[in-house]
Amino acid sequence: MSPGVKNISHPVLALTMGDMNGIGPEVIIRSLADENTRNSAGYLIFGDKEVFTRYCRISGSEPFWDDIVDSTDENASDKPADFMAAPTGRTDSSGKKNADDASASLPLPSPGSVYVISPDSDQPDESFLSPGAVCPRSGDRSMRCIAAAAAACLNGKAHAMVTAPISKEAISLAGYQSPGHTEYLQELAGSGQAGMMLVNRQMRTGLVTIHEPLRAVSDLITFERVTQTARLFHQSLKRDFGIRKPRIAMLGLNPHAGDGGVLGTEEKQVIGPAVSALQQEGINVDGPWPSDGFFGSKAYRNYDLVLAMYHDQGLIPGKMEGFQSGVNVTIGLPLIRTSPDHGTAFPIAGKNMADAGSMTAAIQLAADMAKWHFMR
Question: Domain 202-315 in CATH: superfamily?
Answer without folding.
Answer: Isopropylmalate Dehydrogenase (3.40.718.10)
